[in-house]
Amino acid sequence: MNIRAGDASALRAGITIEWLSVAWMTLEAAVGIAAGVAAGSVALVAFGIDSVIELLSGGVVLWRLVSEQRALDREGVERAEGRASRVVGWSLLALAAYVVAHAGYALVVRAAPEVSPVGMALAAAALVVMPWLVQAKRRIARAIDSPALKGDAACGVVCAYMAGTLLAGLGLRAALGWWWADPVAALGLVYFIVKEGREALRSNGGCACER
User: How far apart are CA 155 and CA 54, in angstroms?
Assistant: First the structure.
């Protein structure tokens, strides 16, 4: 497969933006989980775990773009994407079950998490970073006609919504002392997590969300 000069340039840009996305998701996962465990925040831990799963999905998309750049077997890449999407889909549904169980327990026993300034800063940063990544991925996906990259951009939209929900819950806990805001925000994340999981199981690979 020969790649034209313009397509090759766009493909390199796609690989670069995916590397940036993988780096951000790694940071988001590490900080989210660590801060969530420290504060006892179900919503923050769930956000971090979701970032780990999205990191897996983004890694698959990155691999596909690099494989296309090297003119490797496209059918083999797509089969691998399909297997990865199934793993991502079931992982997301398992995460949703975890969130429901732990948020429900927190509401029953009235478990109040600590205020997490780090978690709030992470969510606020995600609201800035993710829209920028989404726009870049959409632009490059159009240039190289890549459904996989387009789907990964849709994942970024979901991540931004989740960050907004998380920030609202953490903010209410910090500002008003509402102990129930964190588990309720965690339950609010379930909609987005399940949506991603179902789309991943229905897809043929590329990303765990709607194209």
Answer: 8
User: Half-sphere exposure (CA, 13 Å, Cβ side) for 31?
Assistant: 17
Cα 199 from Cα 76, distance rounded (Å): 21
Residues 14-57 have pLDDT tens digits of: 899 999 999 999 999 999 999 999 988 888 998 898 888 888 87
Q: Which architecture does CATH list for 5-202?
A: Up-down Bundle (1.20)
Which residue matches tokens 């043929």?
204
CB burial of 187-201 (b: ≥16 within 10 Å; e: otherwise) equals bbbbebbbbbbbbbe
Residues 6+ apart with CB under 8 A from 130: 156, 157, 159, 160, 163
- What gap in Å lies between CA 152 and CA 144, rounded to an integer? 14
Backbone angles phi, psi at 90, to 5 degrees: -70, -35
Q: Are 92 and 5 in contact (CB under 8 A)?
A: no
- 173 is written with which tokens? 């806990």
